[in-house]
Amino acid sequence: MNHHISLSNHTAATLLGAALSDLIPQGYLLKGGVEGSSFYYDIVLGETLDKVMLPHLENRMKEIASKDFEIKVHEMVPSNAYEFFKHHRRYYPSHFVQMSNEPLVKVVQIDAFIDYVEERFLENTGELGEFRLEKIEERPPLNFKKQEKHVYRVYGKLDEAGTSSINPLEVGQELGLFDARASRGKDFLEKTEIVWRGLGESVLFGFYQKWREIHIKHGYELVVGGRLKEGRFAEFFFEKGRMHDFASMISVEKDLVESIKKCMEMIETLSPLEGSWSGEGPDEYDQIFNELAVSRAPKKEFSLKRKGSFLKVRKKGEFYTIEHSVFPSMMQTIIDVLEDSEKDLSQKKELLGIVTVCDELG
């Protein structure tokens, strides 16, 4: 998903929240977001939310967008944001900011509508392109003060996002990678529990085995139980719902460019996701060393990112520490492959290394 579509999706989700607030004032807005190529907003209701509301909500969103309101994002101390939301009858956002561990939280404002957010948005509502609302789904119920309440999710889609809509959880289950079940946590937010089984367990093990072989090949010592203070080492962490890695090496300045290139090549070899690199730091680190064609004077600290993977460089004295992660979440990486609308099913099977097995399964 490109940057503009991402900003537009989050903006559309917030506009949907504003429309729900205007047309269904008896409901309690829960939270909006982006799922694949769609945007959505959840609302808590004591009654049924019928699909006949879709055109009314869509028209109200377009009315708000046409007024070209400035989209303001304020930073607030959580305790102040809690009182602010509570005063405006936004009880779920008030709960979310109260639970936040961040020193500051973000509050978005579009005209009179306010919401708790973590994302970035377009600057004005008039910048939002064409969109449409597609469906309403009942989601896992929410228990509040020992009462079970209905939660409905309204989905929409930007015209520029294309026509394909892929649910990676459905694809993964059809391929036999995992079982998925939606539930609601004590924090009121929806979560998806995934059990990797059969072919899925084999895919995860295959990625880990390849990760292990390549890091050993490049001279990393594999460790378990904590990071070493020096040397070239790598560790893979196994946590419920997440498998991630961390690797670190020391380089002198004359070897820095070559070392960075090797780390980037390792990430590209191991990750099934495709995409270009982007940089963070002074002048995007001279446009990533002018696409690594020319050696530049190294900066003190910078980072490179590519589809979830990252590489960080820090200078300490005469040496540079290069840290990287291929899989901040291996599970999420596989979900991202399944969600890719630019790849057909056979290409996804190939990226996951399961072409033959899947074909045998039919």
Features:
36% helix; alpha+beta; BirA Bifunctional Protein, domain 2; 362 residues; 7-stranded mixed beta sheet; Threonyl-tRNA Synthetase, Chain A, domain 2; single chain; 2 domains; 11 helices
Would you write up a description of this structure?
The chain is of the alpha+beta class and 362 residues long. It folds into two domains: 3-165, Threonyl-tRNA Synthetase, Chain A, domain 2, CATH 3.30.980; 200-330, Bira Bifunctional Protein, Domain 2 (BirA Bifunctional Protein, domain 2), CATH 3.30.930.10. The model is unreliable at 356-362 (pLDDT under 50). It is 36% helix and 32% strand. The strands form four sheets. The chain has a seven-stranded mixed beta sheet with strand order 10-11-12-16-15-14-13, covered by helices on one side. A four-stranded antiparallel beta sheet has the order 1-2-7-6. α1 (3-23) crosses α2 (54-66). The chain is built from eleven helices and 16 strands.
